[in-house]
């Protein structure tokens, strides 16, 4: 019996073409959605810096190729990190972008890795940047990728791969990146393998980012702000973000852990000489007995309470008690009474 020969490979019309030649060109609206910017921003970058679409066919609008999009990802990442647009465009245009399948390169990763990028001012060359978006963060958390979460969440401008430095300090980091990602995860039904918990992965990375960002201890004599959680509630991640944002503006923010009864809360205020007390809860039926007791025994100490809107009616009506309706609003109000100036 004569053994069968392997079939000869059949040449096709696409043989030898780079992946960039095969990838579909994108309209400005599609690219704007991918980058999270307005179409007008892309047109401005095209007009001012030459970062526009290169694909063109007769009778049709110009479209963005895979290489064009990767350059725009570099531009977007650098501007988020605080690099001036002109300098960011210069770096983006100088970037050796190689779309997937092109010789010697790999594609932009699912969470926005940008390969072969020259170092931006103050950064270490050879390390990929990440585009820090809620979607990228959720993807990393669902994959149980703690390292990628950490890189996406890194705060401050000194990191070589830090991706969230351009989100406007801790307040912007929380309101535009972490909080939306947590809300997205809360809406999903997830089947995890043992040892993988998307929310815990995200929380752990966020706490590490806040620890690394904390820096020096507060100055001697800084205004003390106590951050409490209503009795019976777990401590939410937002209290750490709030304390870090307050500390960044010079306050001595202290998160109170463990059970704290009304009498104990009054003692803590006296012991620490607190300039303000913040209570952050998530339940619709919060136990605010501590808020009531503090308002009665220490009316000279301003209190700020942040709860879901449906629970606002539960807040005691006292001269020293104020309802905060948002993270940013709460930060501004507390800093107003402690002498700080809101960051970012």
From TrEMBL:
Keyword Hydrolase appears in the UniProt entry: no
Domain of life where this protein originates: Bacteria
Region (Disordered): 99-121
GO molecular function: DNA binding; DNA-binding transcription factor activity
Keywords attached to this entry: DNA-binding
InterPro entries: DNA-bd_dom_put_sf (IPR009061), MerR-type_HTH_dom (IPR000551), MerR_fam (IPR047057)
Pfam families linked to this entry: MerR_1 (PF13411)
Record-annotated HTH merR-type domain positions: 25-94
Record-given protein name: HTH merR-type domain-containing protein
């Amino acid at each position: 019996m004569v053994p069968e020969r392997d079939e000869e490979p059949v040449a096709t019309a696409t043989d030898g073409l780079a992946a960039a030649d095969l990838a579909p060109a994108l309209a400005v609206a599609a690219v704007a959605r991918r980058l999270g910017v307005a179409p007008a921003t892309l047109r401005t970058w095209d007009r001012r810096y030459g970062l526009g679409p290169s694909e063109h066919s007769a009778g049709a609008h110009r479209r963005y190729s895979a290489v064009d999009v990767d350059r725009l990802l570099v531009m977007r990442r650098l501007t988020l990190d605080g690099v001036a647009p002109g300098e960011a465009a210069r770096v983006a245009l100088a970037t050796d972008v190689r779309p997937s399948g092109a010789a010697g390169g790999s594609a932009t990763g699912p969470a926005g890795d940008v390969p072969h990028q020259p170092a931006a001012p103050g950064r270490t060359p050879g390390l990929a940047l990440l585009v820090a978006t809620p979607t990228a963060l959720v993807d990393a958390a669902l994959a149980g990728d703690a390292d990628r979460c950490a890189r996406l969440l890194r705060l401050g401008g000194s990191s070589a791969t830090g991706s969230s430095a351009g989100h406007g300090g801790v307040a912007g980091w929380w309101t535009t990146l972490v909080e939306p990602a947590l809300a997205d995860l809360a809406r999903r039904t997830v089947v995890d393998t043992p040892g993988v918990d998307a929310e815990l992965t995200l929380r752990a990375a966020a706490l590490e980012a806040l620890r690394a960002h904390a820096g020096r201890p507060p100055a001697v004599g800084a205004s003390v702000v106590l951050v409490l959680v209503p009795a019976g509630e777990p401590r939410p991640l937002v209290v750490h973000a709030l304390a870090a944002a307050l500390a960044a503006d010079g306050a001595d923010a202290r998160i109170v852990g463990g059970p704290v009864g009304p009498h104990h809360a009054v003692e803590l205020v006296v012991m620490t000489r607190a300039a303000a007390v913040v209570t952050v809860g998530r339940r619709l039926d919060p136990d605010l007995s501590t808020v009531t007791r503090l308002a009665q025994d220490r009316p000279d100490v301003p209190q700020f309470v942040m709860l879901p809107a449906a629970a606002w009616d539960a807040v005691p009506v006292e001269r020293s008690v104020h309802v905060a309706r948002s993270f940013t609003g709460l930060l501004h109000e507390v800093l107003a009474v402690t002498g700080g100036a809101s960051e970012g």
